[in-house]
Design goal:
By secondary structure, this protein is α/β, with parallel strands linked by helices. It has 17 helices and 31 strands. An eight-stranded mixed sheet has the order 21-20-24-23-26-25-27-28, with helices on both faces. Strands 3-2-7-16-17-18 form a six-stranded mixed sheet, covered by helices on one side. A hairpin with a 2-residue loop joins strand 4 and strand 5. Helix 3 crosses helix 4 and helix 12 runs antiparallel to helix 13.
């Protein structure tokens, strides 16, 4: 609710009591780096005064605490938290995240505009402020079968929604450089507004051209050198720390008081297990300060710089006229929230319970063909084999060439060499495609794991050394409307149902966390060595991240941007 200007002015001057006063703390000023003692006065959802004594209709004692602006996650896919937007709100807001800028392209790739509408509805009801960048790449390329296709005209119809910022990550960077008409239509429709970037390893003149198209941010930089070039060419660099893509170690040395106005923080894809065990943006702030990042630089990147980068002029600083997004901390280095206000509203159990629910969408969206062990045969007469090489902590993969001699015209998994089969099964009911390849890096010795979280087309992806267990896991995914499955010896060892478009659970995040622990343990019992096997599994099917990937149409050489015959 917008407060009358007369109320803001009167409460700011102290002529009448403020609606809410935070008393006894000090404010970290993210411009000067200084501490500002005094009360913080709030009228409705707006800060109207700092640095003075105020009377309030309601007073919260924050004695001994330091107040910082609420944290802004500048790029994420809420679907990757495996819970609905309202559960994500309840999970993350109490940790100090008061704004989340999401791209709902996971659900959009399954059910189209209906999925984006679902997120826009949820964004009007959460305690935190969820903002939406409209999904630019549905599907991400023409080398996969997605459940939907969204063109520029459909995005323009949503452009003026109050929760929309701009155009989400332009993953099809080859399409930008080659001037694909559909890609150019989307860029033209949002020209002059905010457009998110996604250009891993792009540099030189190609990077110049990509940025010249009006693209402003980049979260795919994985080295300091790559990030530095992108900063020098005018991009805002978002330091990412997700459940799989972990770039904080590589990029945090670049974050200083000098660069912090142009660097932000994001999680991209982070699940409830990692949030519970480590944290969210609070984890990033805590870790970076512990490694020597200046306190001011870390908190700037987490809020003020993020607000400026995305045109959110009403937040990012505890100052008069700004939105009352405030986190109270005992210790800046420890970064553990004692109190969180989002738009002047306390992030409390009562606030979360009072939200109006949103009806789930995308039920029954797993329409995969029936599969058997024979569906996962890899037939060939040649020993030379393209193999996807997993890089732990990265969504980049290696393009390996291995000798896998066929036996009776069929290539088989070889656990002794850490060679497992990987398969993608089209699950949208469009063509029944099944593609089979090989992957190294999971450490799998027995059984199979499978998922419908398979970026960005979200077909079924399975990795296994037993074709029968791959078939069992894929079949079980259809029965539970999507999710994760671990199978061995003809038995399902663990599973998590994700019936909302095959991506999100209808259970509380605490339940999802517990089941993820059981899944992780089951995967490790099969020999899996990866910390986050299911999200790692998802990204081996994303054909816009170098170097070798697989979709339902076959192996994809991402650097050549073509399917390997």
């Amino acid at each position: 609710m917008v407060q009358p200007l007369s109320d803001l002015i009167a409460q700011g001057r102290g002529l009448v009591p403020a609606d809410l006063v935070l008393r006894g703390g000090q404010v970290l000023d993210l411009v000067t780096g200084e501490m500002v003692p005094g009360d913080v006065a709030i009228c409705g959802e707006t800060i109207v005064g700092i640095g003075s004594a105020y009377e309030g209709r309601e007073v919260l004692d924050v004695s001994g605490l330091t107040l910082v602006p609420g944290f802004i996650d500048t790029h994420l896919h809420i679907e990757s938290s495996l819970v609905t937007p309202l559960e994500f709100d309840r999970c993350v807001c109490p940790r100090g995240v008061t704004t989340a800028i999401c791209d709902p392209h996971e659900i959009a790739n399954v059910i189209g505009i209906e999925g984006i509408d679902y997120f826009l509805q949820a964004a009007t009801r959460t305690v935190m402020d969820i903002r939406v960048n409209l999904s630019s790449c549905v599907p991400s390329t023409g080398m996969e079968t997605a459940g939907a296709r969204i063109e520029a005209e459909a995005l323009v119809a949503l452009k003026d929604h109050p929760k929309v910022i701009g155009l989400a990550e332009m993953m099809n960077y080859p399409g930008v450089l080659m001037q694909d008409p559909g890609v150019l239509a989307k860029l033209e429709a949002f020209r002059g507004g905010h457009i998110d970037g996604h250009a891993p390893l792009l540099s030189g003149r190609d990077l110049n051209a990509y940025i010249a198209a009006g693209i402003r941010t980049e979260h795919e930089a994985t080295s300091a050198a790559e990030a530095r070039e992108k900063l020098q060419k005018g991009m805002r660099v978002l330091i990412r720390e997700g459940s799989v893509s972990k770039d904080m170690v590589a990029l945090s040395p670049l974050l200083s008081e000098r660069t912090s106005p142009y660097m932000c923080l994001c999680t991209d894809d982070r699940n409830p297990l990692d949030i519970a065990e480590q944290g969210h943006l609070d984890h990033m702030i805590r870790w970076m300060i512990g490694q020597g990042t200046p306190v001011l630089a870390a908190y700037r990147a987490a809020s003020l710089s993020a607000a400026e980068a995305f045109g959110l002029k009403d937040r990012g600083q505890i100052a008069p006229g700004k939105r009352a997004d405030i986190v109270a901390l005992e210790d800046l280095a420890a970064c553990r929230a004692r109190l969180v206000l989002a738009g002047g509203r306390l992030a409390s159990a009562g606030a979360f319970a009072a939200r109006e629910d949103v009806a789930p969408v995308g039920r029954g969206s797993v329409r995969a063909p029936k599969v058997t062990a024979a569906s996962f045969r890899a037939t060939s007469n040649a020993a030379e084999t393209h193999v996807i090489g997993i890089l732990p902590g990265k969504i980049l993969t290696e393009h390996l060439i291995e000798a896998v001699p066929p036996e009776g015209g069929e290539k088989r998994a070889d656990p002794r060499r850490d060679l497992a089969k990987v398969a993608v099964v089209e699950r949208h009911g469009k063509n029944g495609n099944i593609a089979v390849g090989f992957v190294r890096g999971f450490g799998l010795q027995r059984g199979a794991i499978a998922s419908t979280v398979c970026h960005d087309h979200h077909n079924i992806v399975a990795v296994g050394v037993s074709e029968a267990d791959m078939a069992l896991a894929a079949t079980r995914l259809s029965e539970i409307e999507g999710g994760f499955v671990v199978a061995e010896g003809g038995r399902v060892l663990a599973e998590l149902a994700l019936p909302v478009a095959g991506l999100m659970s209808l259970e509380p995040f605490e339940t999802v966390e517990a089941r993820l622990k059981a899944l992780r343990a089951a995967a490790r019992s099969l020999g899996v060595v990866l910390d986050e096997p299911f999200l790692q599994l998802a990204f081996i099917a994303l054909p816009v991240i170098p170097a070798l990937k697989i979709t339902d149409r076959g192996l994809v050489d991402v650097e050549a941007f073509e399917i390997i015959g």
